[in-house]
Amino acid sequence: MSGALAGSLALVTGASRGIGRAVARRFAAEGATVIAVARHGAALDSLIDEIAADGSPPGVIADIDLTDAISIDALAEWVREHYGRLDVLVGNAATAGEAVEAREQDPSDFDTVLRVNVTANQALIRAFDPLLRASDAGRAIFVTSGLARRPKSHMAAYCASKAALEVLVRAYADDVADSGVRANLLDPGVVNTVLFRSAMPESDTSGMKGPDAVADAFVALARPAETRTGQTLSWKDVVDG
Ligand SMILES: NC(=O)c1ccc[n+]([C@@H]2O[C@H](COP(=O)([O-])OP(=O)(O)OC[C@H]3O[C@@H](n4cnc5c(N)ncnc54)[C@H](OP(=O)(O)O)[C@@H]3O)[C@@H](O)[C@H]2O)c1
């Protein structure tokens, strides 16, 4: 199959809906074999059916909870046994947490946001770094938000998690600077998804872009030809070149 990612093996977290689902479908349309990760297996089943109906390479379902590092390690071991490498890692899954002021937030909710948005991505890096290094052109893309740098009331945990994610990924990019792996952060801007609507229930979403609009930016950063690393890039800058 031809396409910008022909022959690539790509893992996308948060592939059951929203941006991750659009990215998984676009990657498959570009010739990648996609490992689709999320908790809801039925939603992943329908994604895999859509990929097959498109005539794209068959996808693989990994219905795991990313807060469980043992499941992440087991998935990496399965990928090592079956493929021996990973070409593209997209750390996209996230949760917004309760829309409350910092002083009101339940500590367990704050902790969940940090575990999904930060700790799980470190667990992915830990588990998949050897497989990215085993690729001819390992590419890691983590999804951030402008709120990492412009924090907003009622979103302290989410903002803090994205700020921590940015530092984590920039440090990881430095870790792999002497390898062929490239690691970047991508900010998709505002996108009409479940996460956006739950975090900003008062917002008018009419006319807002949908997840498909940002998928090309992920393809660009996933390509073997991509040379940038350690950068935080807006989807628009990536698409406009
Ligand atoms: N939408 C925006 O305006 C916007 C703006 C800036 C940045 N972002 C970022 O874009 C990324 C995608 O967000 P989205 O808007 O597409 O959100 P979304 O539609 O709510 O999708 C979130 C995804 O994460 C998965 N997920 C959540 N917790 C998980 C867990 N514990 N284990 C495994 N998977 C889990 C969900 O799947 P399951 O529920 O099936 O597990 C779902 O597939 C996030 O990193 C978000 O911070 C979004």
UniProtKB/TrEMBL annotation:
<dbReference type="GO" id="GO:0016491">
    <property type="term" value="F:oxidoreductase activity"/>
</dbReference>
<dbReference type="Pfam" id="PF00106">
    <property type="entry name" value="adh_short"/>
</dbReference>
<protein>
    <submittedName>
        <fullName>NADP-dependent 3-hydroxy acid dehydrogenase YdfG</fullName>
    </submittedName>
</protein>
<comment type="similarity">
    <text>Belongs to the short-chain dehydrogenases/reductases (SDR) family.</text>
</comment>
<keyword id="KW-0560">Oxidoreductase</keyword>
<dbReference type="InterPro" id="IPR002347">
    <property type="entry name" value="SDR_fam"/>
</dbReference>
<dbReference type="InterPro" id="IPR020904">
    <property type="entry name" value="Sc_DH/Rdtase_CS"/>
</dbReference>
<dbReference type="InterPro" id="IPR036291">
    <property type="entry name" value="NAD(P)-bd_dom_sf"/>
</dbReference>
